[in-house]
Amino acid sequence: MEQAHVQRRPEIGLLLDQEKAYDRVHPMYLRQVMLAFGFPPSLVHSLENLFFGNAVRININGHFTNKVDQRRGLRQGDPLSPLLFNIALEPFLRHILQDSSFQGFQFQSVSNSATATSNIVPSLLKVLAYADDVCVLLQSTDDYCRLRHHLDRYGSVSNAKVNIHKTEAFSLDGRSYPECIAFLVTQGISNWHDHSAPSPLRYLGFLMIQSFHQRRYLEQQLLQTDVLPS
Questions:
Q1: For every one of its 230 residues, what pLDDT tens digit does the chain have, with 9 covering 90 and above?
Q2: Which SS3 state, helix, strand or coil, does residue 123 take?
Q3: Which residues are within 8 A (CB) of 166 and not within 5 positions of it... i.e. 6 or more apart?
Q4: What is the spatial distance between Cα 52 and Cα 50, in angstroms, rounded to a whole number?
Q5: Looking at the whole model, is its pTM more than 0.85?
Q6: Which of 66, 75, 142 lies closest to 104 in space, CA to CA?
Q7: Which H, E and C letters describe 19-31, residue by residue?
Q8: Which of these, 151, 161, 207, 201, lies nearest to 13 by C-alpha position?
């Protein structure tokens, strides 16, 4: 975002909102993905039995409901669930990364005097993912069309679904782009963030501040927070 601000780059980011991400994982899809990635069939079968070959009963004030077969979905709180979800999501991410028509964000070349850590920065960044929090970087409306293509394809085989109306868009350089905003509205995306937004955008718990008044907003929130015991 700092580089985009300095160079006045028009790229934007989309924070995808996945509807009940863990609950919608389909066992047959997960099985095929794991086998395609080379997991031993015996391990895949064991995981299927752990997550899908059982029934659950819900305790409501000491009263148990009838048994319900778990036919899909990963259990919240299970230590294996995030790992299995990452495996299920990986084909979608790879399709974006391997799509030569998808432009994403192009970093400027790193100078020879840069630190050694700069060598790990990719020249092209298309998507960031942490569990079910996915951020996609777009250079143009063509990128958005490619994204929708991959989302539709991924959803049709995996049972995944993205809440477009809850998806948040933001300007990487902080400026407002009326034409881009108008296009996104036609696609059902009305949540837009730039330097004029009253509060900063939050991504993975981090506030992405793009203006002085957003910084002031954060300072006021911190001052109003009672961090010491009374």
A1: 666 666 677 788 999 998 998 999 999 999 999 999 999 999 999 999 888 877 778 888 888 888 877 778 888 888 999 999 999 999 999 999 999 999 888 877 655 544 544 555 667 889 999 988 999 999 999 999 999 999 999 999 999 999 999 999 998 887 888 999 999 999 999 999 888 888 888 888 888 888 888 888 888 877 876 654 54
A2: coil
A3: 17, 191
A4: 6
A5: no
A6: 142
A7: CCCCCCCCHHHHH
A8: 201
